[in-house]
Write the structure tokens for this entry.
Amino acid sequence: MRKIMFFDIDGTLMEDSSSHYVPESTVKALQLAKKAGHLLYVNTGRPLINVDEDVRALGFDGYICGCGTYIEIDNQEVFYHTNAKKICLQMAQLVRDCNASPLYERRDAFYFDNQAVQLPFIQELRNIFKMQEKNIWRSVQDEDFSFDKFVIAYDEHTNLEKFKAGISPHFEFIDRGYGFAEMTQKNYSKQTGIAYILDYYHIDKSNAYAIGDSLNDLPMFAGVGTSIAMGNGEKLIPYADYVTSDLWHNGIYQALEYFEFF
């Protein structure tokens, strides 16, 4: 019976660090599962522009990016949904008014806002992108500014209540902890991306699996028959059907072997 597995990236497939370390056991497990004829998909909050060659080299059948707003099958874009320019400009002003520090993400670009408060977390992301030789100079003031989703850093000076109320008609608020939050389009998520893929392949939910490490993977869990938490995903573990080892102790290999992907 053909199965499909959906993978988060950071903290699941690779270290959430500048090294992007991928265990050899993970590479081997993915190869064995592909050889056995099963389907492997990345399902990430990252926009397409931030799915680098270190991920693509692992040989996935396709990608769900930007929390369900972009879907790629066999190197072909099959779905994309973004926001109207008017909404994007409204959100940028709201972020400024609420004293938060933003990063706006589109499938082909990142945008920063020098008119918003500058908090260290967003500056660190900018520095990482610079080291990766990505274009970090696009800004909210650019004529082509728009985004699919966005993240903010916040602190004790941020008016989160006003911010949450302001985004609520258009976006979901996902608190990632440590003063960092992610805003995803309403009606689009890791779960809706999975539904599209399962319908495309005519695969029943009972043969679909998802593996992740953080609470932003809960929508992915809702879309499959079997949910798997990495051992390093402490907050996600209570919601999982199965808990595998952590990333550094063959967690991906253990999960794929346990569920007979090879």
Q: What stands out?
A: The chain has eight helices and 13 strands.
